[in-house]
Design a protein that fits this description.
This protein has helices spanning 12-22, 41-46, 65-75, 85-101, 103-115, 123-146, 157-165, 178-188, 191-198; strands spanning 2-5, 26-29, 54-57, 60-63. With 201 residues, it is of the alpha+beta class. The structure holds glutathione.
């Protein structure tokens, strides 16, 4: 049985979306980030970083949301994992790119511009994050003005990984990036995405 550790209000949302796309059974260990359970030796044995998500797939333990989703999409033989090696590599490219260019930046921007109590916000952090987000949104806009999906002719794990990481982008004004905005809407309109989103809203 596949076990997923991590609350839907964390990066585990990406994996909770993925298992819904795949239609596979799983057990959900609903651990909040930084909660005592994620500091327990048993959890740190699985992920010494102490972060969620982590999966235990019949004894195979894996951390890092992007790697988890690539693994699940490939293992469960869905159309979400391209068979063509070039398109497979594109799913890696976009997943690694997102981790580098947008992942922390989006969280930092939202926290320090709106999510944290006003007294805890540091506007300089929000500003610095936004300076990195803007060009990255531009890269996505250019890519998505040439094609509907990031890796091939249909929705794939590349789209899921990047769109899931842009959950907070749903509340941003993306009108300067119309192709990105439309693609994000298409991705999050999927029934599996809506079902995952319902777990945290
Ligand atoms: N690169 C990792 C980041 C994981 C991560 O930072 N998770 C957060 C929750 S969204 C967490 O558990 N933070 C608590 C900690 O690092 O102690 C991934 O994509 O899985």
């Amino acid at each position: 049985m596949l076990r997923i550790y991590g609350s839907a209000r964390s990066r585990a949302l990406r994996t909770l979306w993925m298992v819904r796309e795949l239609g596979i059974a799983y057990e959900h260990m609903d651990l909040a980030p930084r909660s005592p359970a994620t500091r327990a030796p048993a959890f740190l044995d699985m992920n010494p970083n102490g972060a969620v998500p982590v999966i235990d797939d019949d004894g195979f333990v894996l951390a890092e949301s992007m790697a988890i989703n690539l693994y699940l999409a490939k293992k469960y033989g869905s159309g979400l994992y391209p068979a063509d090696p070039a398109m497979e590599a594109k799913t890696w490219q976009w997943s690694f790119w997102e981790t580098d260019k947008l992942d922390r930046q989006v969280v930092t921007y939202v926290n320090h511009s709106s999510a944290l109590p006003e007294a805890d916000r540091k506007p300089a952090l929000a500003e610095a994050a936004w300076k990195e987000i803007e060009p990255a949104f531009g890269v996505l806009e250019t890519a998505l003005s040439k094609q509907d999906w990031l890796a091939g002719r249909s929705f794939s794990v590349a789209d899921l990984n990047v769109a899931a990481a842009l959950y907070r982008g749903l509340a941003m004004d993306l009108s300067r990036w119309p192709h990105l905005q439309a693609w994000l809407g298409r991705c999050w309109d999927r029934p599996a995405a809506k079902a995952a989103r319902a777990l945290r809203e």
